[in-house]
Amino acid sequence: MRTDPPSPNEMRAQLTELLQAHEALAERLRQGQAAFQRIARSVWRVQEEERSRFARELHDGVGHNLAAMLHLISEALASLPDDERNRHARDELARAHAIGDSTLQDTRALSRMLRPQILDDLGLEPALRWLARSFSETHGIDTQLDYHAPPAGIDADRSTLVFRLVQEALANTARHASARRVAIAFDGRGEQASLRVRDDGSGCDIEAALARGRQGASSGLGGMRDRVRLFGGSLQFQSTPGAGFGLSVHFPLSDASPGASP
User: Fold this and answer.
1) Which residues of 191-223 are buried (b: 16+ CB within 10 A; e: fewer)?
2) Residue 244: which region, alpha, beta or left (left: phi > 0; alpha: psi -120 to 50)?
3) pLDDT tens digits, 167-212
4) Distance between CA 134 and CA 128 in Å, rounded?
5) Which end of the chain is more exposed for a tag (fewer CB within 10 A), N or C?
6) Consecutive H or E run containing 110
């Protein structure tokens, strides 16, 4: 059994070996994280494709059937004489038409929210303007969008990411904030795009909300952060009870952009 201390050369060799082992382990961790991000983004993409398929089925299947039903009801109404004997039947048909029309509008709205065709057909800016306008009209909350397009454009995955983040933020505002105004700002003029959403509502305790998410009671805020991380980005929340709610997102516009955080 050796009792004398190692020589300086032996210590340098051991240190070099430890550093090499550490670097090898760090590289394996980086590769594992990159592989996990690729898999998670693939799963997320499949989820979006399923949303798109379901949205098309709602619009083209259920929506068209409802429209055909409304046409038949209208024809039946037109064929009934408007006299006292047919009054009850005409009233019932009119009620059925009103219910069917309301259901058709709800179906179309659900289809658009699942996957708005405008996002695929016209791109992110028109989709965000449609979302802001629809939210303002539905909830009576003044919603403003300031949009600066990336010079080289933005790919489909990142367009979907931004749209979903804004959609989730607006849904939180509608559910919890009692807000009067919402400001949305997207700036893609640098290598790192930024998104900010801010309302003037009642605010919340961010740490408590995230803790509820970790316990499975709510996944909204934590889920938003997880999706941003899939693209090498970061997300911060700013809120205190009674002082509004905001989020700030930064992410690279391409996977090769420098400065992307893991």
Assistant:
1) ebbbbbbbbbbebbebeebbebbeeeeeebbee
2) left
3) 999 988 888 768 899 999 999 998 899 999 999 988 877 777 677 7
4) 10
5) N
6) helix 87-114
